[in-house]
Amino acid sequence: MKKIVVLGCGLVGRVMAQDLSHRHKVTSVDISKENLDKLGSSKVIRLCKDVSCSSVLNEVIKDCDLVVGALPGFMGYQTMKKVILAKKNIVDISFYPEDPFELDQLAKDNNVVAVMDCGVAPGMGNIIFAHHDKTMTIENYECLVGGLPKKREWPFEYQAVFSPIDVIEEYIRPARYVLNKSLITKEALSDTELVEFDEIGTLESWNSDGLRTLIETMSHVPNMIEKTLRYPGCVEYLKVLRECGYFSYEPLEIDGNKIRPIDLTAKLLFPKWQMKEGDEDFTVMRIKITGMEKDNEVQYTYTLLDRFQNNTISMARTTGFTCTAVANLILEKKFMRTGISPPEFLGEHFEAINDYLKKRDVIYNVSKS
């Protein structure tokens, strides 16, 4: 039985800790006792600690075989760096803005396996992409993905399972995609389109910076794009807030106090976005990969429609189980590449990861045309 430390006990971290505890000795660490209490009667060990403190983090992880990161994005990069310096392998879901490859040599020097962005998208989408990249010449990769509440409530018709500031980052970080081998950068929330999905109906897609490492690692593919999905109308509200400065990191002085607008906005929006007892969600994703395979032009289409089940949020399931699948591959020494590994470096393990997800009823349907 291996020892695992899961950093963060939010909606996703909690699901990962419980999943891994079926086979391993798991310790969940969070600054919030309330979050830890939500683990219920599971056999996961709980530690209420502030791991932003280096000495606390080092003490917590000193005896473990693997660290699983489920902290907010603004903590992700520095936490991964500290874990690498402690010579511990890590698999992480934090959506941090820094360049992960800046830690690559450090991880290699410390003989550390470090997998980042290991969720659903980025995450499983990258793994699917890389799986096909080994057997065909890909011309186009398109990923449409979103996690949405089953119940649509005014004004945003949205709920978040991640840190509010991490979600807001999606709305302000410039969106990059690749067109005819050229890198295109547009503002987030641009190029909105209405898209139809079976069982769900009409959703709205918009540019987000979801390709991330793929821009570098898959630079031989001429066309790549990822777009986020929301209920129609949501984008207009977000654009208004952004244009009015509510997402700004630049401090404002009010009555002698300095405050960042984004902190106030996150505080105000969290009650609106928070998943509450009894709330249900779904995750929808459509990936299209086209190109040449054995002298034939082909298109593979992957569709995911995962719903809240077993009292577990869908976005936590689809994100968390991808991460725990990879965690087990590392613990079983089936993935031992040292350095920073984005999820596309696990393309050859697609079948094993997909089987792991199927056993947990996360089903990616695939068609070929």
Descriptors for this entry?
single chain, 369 residues, alpha/beta, Rossmann fold, Dihydrodipicolinate Reductase, domain 2, 2 domains, seven-stranded parallel beta sheet, seven-stranded mixed beta sheet
Tell me about this structure.
Helix content is 31%, strand content 29%. Strand 5 (90-92), helix 5 and strand 6 form a beta-alpha-beta unit. It is α/β, with parallel strands linked by helices and 369 residues long. The longest helix has 18 residues, at 314-331. It has helices spanning 11-20, 33-37, 54-61, 73-85, 104-109, 124-133, 164-172, 214-217, 234-243, 261-273, 314-331, 350-359, and strands spanning 3-7, 25-30, 45-48, 66-69, 90-92, 113-115, 137-149, 175-179, 182-186, 193-197, 201-207, 223-230, 252-254, 257-259, 281-293, 296-307, 339-341, 364-368. The protein has twelve helices and 18 strands. The model has no long low-confidence stretch (mean pLDDT 95). The protein has two domains: 3-120 and 315-368, NAD(P)-binding Rossmann-like Domain (Rossmann fold); 124-307, Dihydrodipicolinate Reductase, domain 2 (2-Layer Sandwich), CATH 3.30.360. The N and C termini lie far apart (44 Å). It has a seven-stranded parallel sheet with strand order 3-2-1-4-5-6-17, with helices on both faces. The chain has a seven-stranded mixed sheet with strand order 10-11-12-7-15-16-18, with helices on one face. The chain is globular and about 55 Å long. Helix 1 (11-20) packs across helix 11 (314-331) and helix 11 packs across helix 12.
Give a concise summary.
The chain contains 12 helices and 18 strands.
